[in-house]
Design a protein that fits this description.
The chain is an alpha+beta fold and about 220 residues long. The chain is built from eight helices and seven strands. It is flat, with a radius of gyration of 26 Å. The model has no long low-confidence stretch (mean pLDDT about 75).
Length: about 220
């Protein structure tokens, strides 16, 4: 993206002196294979959500992981030291100790049941891919001039017919929705829901694995 921004600004500055026409943002975006909408936002100075969240962070994600690991190790060492001084070197905490700890720190930590998030869906939540999607939608709208009431949004949800493993996630309090990426190898039934821009909707479509029936 930085190369595309630099290319457009360089062309815009040099075009008047060369007597040539400044290339369009669309042409620069296609030449550098970046989403047109994203490039336009960068040139306009619009800060993306990902960039905004990154700028708010004081540490890099890898640095945060190192800090978390060090804190967990330090906490374990401190707990063991205190227990050894109070109860002796042979004392070991029971399996219920983590639950009790969460109860004591309920105002800081909380246990959540994560929502399953398919691996492919997680990988598809990419700024570049989403930008390409909106570019395609804008091109189709300009080409066919269809009415907003003819725009339908479709979403597919996979339902695992087997019993999936349940789990819990420990995160800071007031973070209610958590996702857990899974790479399940189970039979799925696909549920497709469709809604129109005018709030009308189609009946749910359920797709099961194909079965050959012999009479």
């Amino acid at each position: 993206m930085e190369e595309a921004v630099l290319a457009y600004r360089t062309a815009a500055e040099s075009s008047p002196s060369l007597g040539t026409k400044t290339p369009s943002i669309k042409a620069i975006a296609d030449a550098h294979q970046v989403p047109y909408t994203s490039l336009r936002h960068h040139l306009a100075g619009v800060t993306s959500i990902a960039q905004f969240n990154t700028e708010k962070r004081l540490l890099h994600p890898k640095e945060e992981a190192v800090v978390v690991g060090a804190l967990l190790q330090l906490a374990q060492e401190q707990v063991n030291t205190i227990l050894h001084l109070q109860l002796g070197d042979t004392f070991e905490v029971g399996k219920a100790y983590p639950s009790h700890l969460l109860e004591w720190l309920h105002d800081q930590l909380h246990v959540y049941h994560p929502h399953s998030l398919d691996e492919k869906c997680a990988n598809g939540a990419d700024e570049v891919l989403i930008g390409w999607w909106y570019d395609t939608l804008e091109e189709l709208f300009e080409k066919y001039q269809f009415l907003p009431t003819h725009i339908f949004a479709m979403d597919e949800t996979g339902l695992m017919l087997g019993v999936a493993d349940s789990g819990q996630v420990i995160r800071p309090s007031k973070k209610k929705i958590q996702h857990l990426r899974r790479d399940e190898n189970r039979e799925l039934a696909s549920i497709i829901k469709t809604i129109c821009a005018d709030s009308t909707k189609l009946k749910l479509t359920i797709i099961f694995k194909g079965v050959n029936l012999q009479k």
